[in-house]
Write a structure and sequence with these properties.
Rossmann fold, single chain, nine-stranded mixed beta sheet, alpha/beta, globular
């Protein structure tokens, strides 16, 4: 089913769903307020673990007048179905979901933008499906959590999610994610409530899955231009962890100083500004 949220000038925002090749229903939104006589490129925004497409809500107004903007609820998140078996939950399966979304939309190549887990999905898809990429932009992500300096904390994550629930766990760990005194009033409460839409047992499964791989040795295979934006004060990944991103042949590497992990949520204007500059510079050659 598709529902028109709003429309103007022949362009509109719609929400719908498609089924992946293994039968999981994925919810997505398409926003396009570009001039109706143009054929814009598509930007796909991939949210972080424990999130939903709404994590990119503040990005959309900055992009949808120039590009067709697609967001999804990753499998198991938001309004998408939870995969019933562990065989349906892997980073390879998530990257296939991304490619199958492009197929469903009839998009040959897109600009892929990922936050944290979304960035990991984008990196692997860029390695395995280079023909589907115009560019890749990744925020606060490395190619697999196995080597992360925060790896030892993931056991606390899974236990906390199961014992405390999503709200209490995120409330306890919120300072790993934001400078709470620098975000707008109400933001932290909204972030926690939006995250709490997700099932804690599934999120614990998801975190365990994410700690079990590392494809950093394959980053040199990425052929498209890349933007990497990383926070310098990240309790999840160190700057040494992020250094592997520099092995990508064609990249721009930007450090946001003294920032915790969730930069795309806490500073959407800064992050989307870096994306627009990167795309404009690439368009200008």
């Amino acid at each position: 089913m598709a529902g028109v949220v709003t429309s103007a000038g022949g362009r509109e925002e719609t929400q719908s769903q498609f089924r992946t090749s293994d039968g999981i229903a994925i919810r997505y939104a398409v926003t396009d307020f570009t001039p109706p006589w143009k054929k814009p490129d598509t930007i796909v925004l991939l949210h972080a673990a424990m999130g939903t497409m709404n994590r990119f809500r503040q990005w959309v107004p900055h992009l949808a007048g120039r590009w067709r903007v697609v967001r999804w609820d990753m499998r198991g998140h938001g309004d998408s179905e939870i995969p019933p078996t562990d065989g349906q939950l892997s980073i390879e399966r998530l990257s296939r979901d991304y490619v199958e979304l492009l197929d469903h939309l009839g998009v040959e190549r897109a600009h892929c933008v990922g936050s944290s887990t979304g960035g990991i999905i984008g990196m692997l898809a860029a390695v395995e499906h280079p023909e589907r990429f115009l560019t890749l932009a990744s925020y606060a992500a490395i190619p697999g959590l196995a080597p992360s300096t925060g790896h030892n904390d993931y056991g606390d994550w899974t236990a906390g999610l199961m014992k405390e629930g999503v709200r209490a766990f995120l409330r306890r760990t919120v300072r790993q994610r934001f400078h709470v005194d620098r975000v707008e009033p109400g933001f932290v409460d909204w972030f926690i409530e939006e995250s709490a839409r997700n099932d804690p047992a599934f999120l614990a499964r998801f975190v365990r899955m994410m700690t079990g791989f590392d494809f950093g040795h394959r980053l040199k295979e990425i052929a498209c231009p890349c933007l990497f934006v990383v926070p310098s004060n990240d309790p999840v990944h160190s700057m040494e962890n992020y250094a592997i991103l520099r092995t990508v042949p064609d990249h721009r590497f930007i450090v946001l100083e003294d920032r915790p992990h969730n930069i795309t949520d806490a500073e959407p204007e800064r992050c989307v500004g870096e994306l627009v500059r990167f795309l404009d510079d690439r368009a200008a050659g």
